[in-house]
Write a structure and sequence with these properties.
Elements (H helix, E strand, L loop, with lengths): L13 H24 L6 H7 L2 H26 L1
């Protein structure tokens, strides 16, 4: 008598493959979360040595301009 169970033949179903893949992704996410949770905060001196304050201020101004323009477009859309 022939056994119709695919697992006994050593073959996995598509559902099994998807489940294994999702499990690996979840494991990778857990490892990444543990890694980042162990990071130490930067001191003010360390941040000052890394951040280009002029460039940061320029980017903040650009984002403010973008958001202001976007707000105006949204208000005009309602009319």
């Amino acid at each position: 008598m022939k056994n119709n169970n695919k697992k006994s033949d050593g073959k996995k179903s598509s559902a099994d493959n998807v489940a294994e893949h999702l499990e690996r992704l979840a494991d990778n996410d857990a490892v990444e979360q543990r890694y980042y949770s162990q990071e130490q905060p930067f001191s003010a001196e360390e941040l000052a040595s890394v951040i280009n304050e002029a460039r940061l201020n320029e980017l903040l101004m650009q984002s403010d301009e973008f958001l202001s323009g976007l707000s105006g477009e949204i208000e005009d859309f309602d009319e």
